[in-house]
């Protein structure tokens, strides 16, 4: 912190680039705008430099999930299962490692990185106050006006949405911030939602010893944005692990008499009663709301530049904010609603940074097919790994999305358990894979893999989808034996067989 104070002159009010929100994407935007351009930049951050992902989302959740995954595999492999026996996780050690991963909520290393590459940091809450201008309210309440010579980038992210369920907000439910920064292990937990946050959270809560985990999803299946078989395999895994899953029913009301603000990850009071629309009443010690996200756009001063407050901020494919003239305002990350994933926010940041640098230098955009100044991947080419047990890798379109888009769709599916590469991984491998092909172009437009060890496979599918590799070329991309990647050969063989049978 001393270095930070020394580096930022409190009287300074002008930079080339101002980034509002210091998440990883914001850091990348500042870095890419400045690294070869001679421009300077400042990041304004109201909480911790590193953002939600580093302290309250991706990193702590993956730190909690890794031991759960490893124990599950060790229990399923002769040679290790005899050693592991009935042992459970060492909860204190898992939480301690999680604390180390989130650096005990200390952002000095990220601040040091920024200062080290010449990016300044200002602490406080920023709001737009007209063209190229923001006002920052410091933690002590003082205000400071900053102006940008070239550009302002908004990277304020999103927060857990709390749906308007009777009594829910009053019960002070856990959000993703509590469940990732869990300190007390409740005996009974109800999760509202069946998307990625709920499914990952249920996995580690059960692994950490929560006796009764109940998940309530209003839609007809878990992980509704993915191929249906993915959610079904995860649901079956939950049932086998003793997690109760309610599908197609909403939470109607929540009540808790004794509500206490005990801090993140501590139980927020006494028993909670959760009533579902079908009349089921579930008693729990904590309730977790995992029902989607809301963009952090309220109070951001968007109306000062002619935009409306509260929703996602629409951007064009150079990440410029739509509806604001002059090519000076950009938005990246969750705030844009394009793809609520860290890697996609960082990708948008790299593009926005280079767009700002090119515009400042007056150099033309790289306008080729894969030009560096245009967002390509957000259009039907987004990869994601869902770290459930088993894990899921997905990229691009599902079959339903491809059909909805009017593509000439062809699919192939294969049982991932039927490979030498997965047989050696564990005894009772469960998995499945599916590819979605655009027959008219003979290219892959989507892929989904479910099973142990598929996370790292996802990038190969992402390359095929983004690079629009012809299926004929994939035939010559030979997977090593025995690995999970053999699934590529089996899927291509399946496709080939289907084509010969037609
Ligand atoms: C439990 C959980 C697990 C997740 N796991 C993954 C995962 O494994 N992989 C993945 O890719 N994604 C994951 N995500 C999604 C990922 O966390 C988000 O997509 C990502 O954090 C969004 O980054 P962002 O840049 O949009 O902003 P955020 O990370 O939301 O950060 C925004 C920053 O802006 C600051 N800020 C906000 N308003 C202001 C203001 N007015 N002035 C100054 N500063 C401000 C905030 O303090 C914050 O630091 C997960 C999400 C959750 C909830
Ligand atoms: N591994 C990862 O990449 C990862 C991990 C966690 C989160 N994320 C990102 O974070 C974002 C947010 O995740 P999320 O799970 O909060 O949102 P989501 O939109 O994926 O899922 C929310 C779910 O809650 C359900 N729901 C909403 N209101 C409900 C109610 N009242 N009762 C019952 N169910 C209700 C919805 O039907 C939906 O299925 C995702 O878009 C995801 O991309 C990514």
TrEMBL record:
Domain Pyridine nucleotide-disulphide oxidoreductase dimerisation: 382-488
Keywords noted in UniProt: FAD, Flavoprotein, NAD
Cofactor: FAD
Gene3D superfamilies: 3.30.390.30, FAD/NAD(P)-binding domain (3.50.50.60)
Alphabetized Pfam families for the sequence: Pyr_redox_2, Pyr_redox_dim
Domain FAD/NAD(P)-binding: start-end pairs: 16-344
Family statement: Belongs to the class-I pyridine nucleotide-disulfide oxidoreductase family.
Descriptive protein name: NAD(P)/FAD-dependent oxidoreductase
Organism: Jatrophihabitans telluris
């Amino acid at each position: 912190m001393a270095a930070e104070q020394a580096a930022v002159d409190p009287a300074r009010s002008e930079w080339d680039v101002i980034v509002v929100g210091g998440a990883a994407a914001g850091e990348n935007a500042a870095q890419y705008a400045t690294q070869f351009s001679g421009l300077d930049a400042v990041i304004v951050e109201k909480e911790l430099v590193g953002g939600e992902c580093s302290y309250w989302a991706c990193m702590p959740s993956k730190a909690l999930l890794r031991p759960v995954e490893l124990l599950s595999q060790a229990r399923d492999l002769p040679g290790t299962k005899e050693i592991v026996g009935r042992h459970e996780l060492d909860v204190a050690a898992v939480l301690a490692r999680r604390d180390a991963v989130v650096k005990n909520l200390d952002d000095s290393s990220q601040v040091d990185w920024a200062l080290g590459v010449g990016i300044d940091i200002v602490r406080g809450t920023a709001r737009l106050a007209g063209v190229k201008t923001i006002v920052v309210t410091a933690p002590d309440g003082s205000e400071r006006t900053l102006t940008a010579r070239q550009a302002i980038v908004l990277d304020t992210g999103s927060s857990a949405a709390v749906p308007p369920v009777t009594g829910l907000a009053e019960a002070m439910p856990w959000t993703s911030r509590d469940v990732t920064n869990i300190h007390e292990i409740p005996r009974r937990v109800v999760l509202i939602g069946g998307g990625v946050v709920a499914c990952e959270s249920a996995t580690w809560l059960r692994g950490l010893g929560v006796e009764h985990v109940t998940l309530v999803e209003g839609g007809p299946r878990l992980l509704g944005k993915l191929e249906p078989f993915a959610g079904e395999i995860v649901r079956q895994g939950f049932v086998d692990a003793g997690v109760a899953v309610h599908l197609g029913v909403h939470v109607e009301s929540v009540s808790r008499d004794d509500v206490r603000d005990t801090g993140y990850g501590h139980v927020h009071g006494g028993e909670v009663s959760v009533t579902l629309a079908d009349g089921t009443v579930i008693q729990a010690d904590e309730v977790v709301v995992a029902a989607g996200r809301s963009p952090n756009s309220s109070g951001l001063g968007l109306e000062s530049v002619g935009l409306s407050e509260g929703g996602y901020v629409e951007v064009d494919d150079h990440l410029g904010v739509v509806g604001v003239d002059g090519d000076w305002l950009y938005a990246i990350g969750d705030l844009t609603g394009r793809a609520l994933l860290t890697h996609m926010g960082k990708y948008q940041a790299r593009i926005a940074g280079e767009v700002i640098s090119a515009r400042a230098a007056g150099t033309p955009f790289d306008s080729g097919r894969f030009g560096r100044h245009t967002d390509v991947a957000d259009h039907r080419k987004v990869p994601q790994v869902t770290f459930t047990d088993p894990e899921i890798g997905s990229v691009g379109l599902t079959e339903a999305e491809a059909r909805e888009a009017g593509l000439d769709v062809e699919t192939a599916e294969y049982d991932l358990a039927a490979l030498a590469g997965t047989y050696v991984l564990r005894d009772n491998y469960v998995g499945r894979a599916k590819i979605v092909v655009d027959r008219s172009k003979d290219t892959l437009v989507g892929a989904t893999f479910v099973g142990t060890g598929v996370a790292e496979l996802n990038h190969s599918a992402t390359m095929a989808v983004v690079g629009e590799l012809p299926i004929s070329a994939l035939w010559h991309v030979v997977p090593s034996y025995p690995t999970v990647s053999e699934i590529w050969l089996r899927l291509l063989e399946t496709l080939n067989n289907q084509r010969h049978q037609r």
